[in-house]
């Protein structure tokens, strides 16, 4: 028998979130980010439900080629660009849009010879940024791009790394001033900027983790407030129940007599081993907590708040009753990291 741990993917929530992004940015085109195997949701599962997006964004050229093989003919953005000359010919053959964010990537374009038009997106760094071209470099970069005859379209993307809403607004203003007077579509930031500034959207928006109903690292806890719904439920079952006496070693460790349960899920499945004692889980819809450090294959939880619990009761590690944002906050990490770290070996059910 297989372990009872798995994923449940709510495709109606995916449709809802994409529609909500469109309402927040009605005049913008949308890049749907499907990096990291669609943030752990499995790219083959989500693609059929996101085909009304304007374009897809992936990490590298190989992923872009795989996306073309599914029959998608719309725009595909390679957000990390490439550092390999041979990749440029795949970019040309499959009509991929290539991010250019370093001097080395720009030189590759200058040295290559193309038979077909090439589409690029130049990354503009913010004042503290590492990747991207800084404002004092940008005009020269654009002139060099113009001399590459095959390049037919040049978009401009502004990196936004700030962690507060006011700082993000400042970086957006700085980007707009930097690219003023330059031709090309504008795009900046990602999920946080969609939530922050629905009345000041650029030509393109990048819909990342909010597409899957979770919050970006720079704006934790904002997805639910914005009306986004969780797409993934990470679930397992109670496989063992014990009543622990207050006089026992384990009882004293947990503050007295207590009913405890063992859940068939651990860090090998993708649950964070950094989850603190007290991290919430839901059993049959009732929220309770993790009682001790997560092991490779199991989690010990408090069953006192769950009077009807039995072996086989469903445990939600995150999803509808316990948000992945909340688990991330208790684990010292981000929602996108948690979603992307779920084991690909887990069975998946579409609901």
UniProtKB/TrEMBL annotation:
Gene3D superfamilies noted in UniProt: Alanine racemase, Lyase, Ornithine Decarboxylase, Chain A, domain 1
Residues bearing PTM N6-(pyridoxal phosphate)lysine: 35
GO BP, sorted A to Z: D-alanine biosynthetic process
Alphabetized Pfam families for the sequence: Ala_racemase_C, Ala_racemase_N
Organism lineage: Bacteria, Pseudomonadati, Pseudomonadota, Betaproteobacteria, Burkholderiales
Residue ranges of the TM segments: none
Domain Alanine racemase C-terminal, chain residue ranges per copy: 231-351
Any one Gene Ontology molecular-function term assigned to this protein's record: pyridoxal phosphate binding
Origin species: Caballeronia concitans
Listed NCBIfam families: alr
Repeat among keywords: no
UniProt keyword annotation of Isomerase present: yes
Key words of the record: Isomerase, Pyridoxal phosphate
Name of the protein described by the UniProt record: Alanine racemase
GO CC list: cytosol
């Amino acid at each position: 028998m297989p372990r009872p741990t798995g994923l449940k993917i709510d495709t109606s929530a995916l449709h809802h979130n994409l529609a909500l992004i469109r309402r927040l940015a009605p005049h913008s085109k949308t890049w749907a980010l499907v990096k990291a195997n669609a943030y752990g949701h499995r790219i083959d599962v989500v693609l059929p439900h996101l085909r009304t997006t304007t374009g897809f964004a992936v990490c590298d050229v190989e992923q872009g080629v795989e996306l073309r093989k599914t029959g998608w003919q719309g725009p595909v953005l390679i957000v990390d660009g490439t550092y390999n000359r041979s990749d440029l010919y795949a970019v040309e053959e499959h009509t991929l849009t290539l991010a250019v964010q370093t001097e080395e990537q720009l030189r590759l374009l200058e040295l290559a010879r193309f038979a077909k038009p090439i589409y690029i997106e130049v990354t503009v760094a913010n004042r503290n940024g590492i990747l991207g071209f800084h404002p004092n470099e940008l005009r020269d970069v654009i002139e060099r791009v113009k001399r590459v005859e095959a390049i037919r379209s040049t978009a401009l993307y502004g990196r936004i790394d700030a962690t507060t809403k006011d700082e993000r607004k400042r970086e957006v203003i700085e980007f707009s001033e930097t690219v003023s007077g330059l031709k090309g579509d504008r795009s900046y930031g990602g999920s946080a900027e969609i939530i922050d500034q629905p009345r000041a959207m650029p030509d393109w928006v990048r819909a990342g983790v909010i597409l899957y109903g979770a919050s970006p690292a720079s704006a934790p806890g904002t997805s639910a407030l914005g009306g986004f719904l969780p797409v993934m439920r990470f679930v397992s079952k109670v496989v063992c129940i014990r009543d622990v006496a207050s006089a026992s070693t384990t009882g004293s460790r947990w503050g007295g007599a207590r009913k405890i349960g063992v859940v068939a899920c651990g860090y090998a499945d993708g649950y964070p081993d950094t989850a603190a004692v007290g991290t919430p889980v839901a059993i049959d819809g009732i929220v309770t907590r993790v009682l001790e450090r997560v092991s490779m294959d199991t989690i010990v939880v408090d069953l006192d708040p769950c009077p009807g619990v039995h072996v086989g009761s469903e445990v939600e590690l995150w999803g509808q009753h316990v948000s992945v944002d909340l688990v991330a906050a208790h684990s010292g990490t981000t929602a996108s990291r948690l979603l992307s770290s779920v084991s690909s070996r887990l069975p998946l059910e579409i609901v």
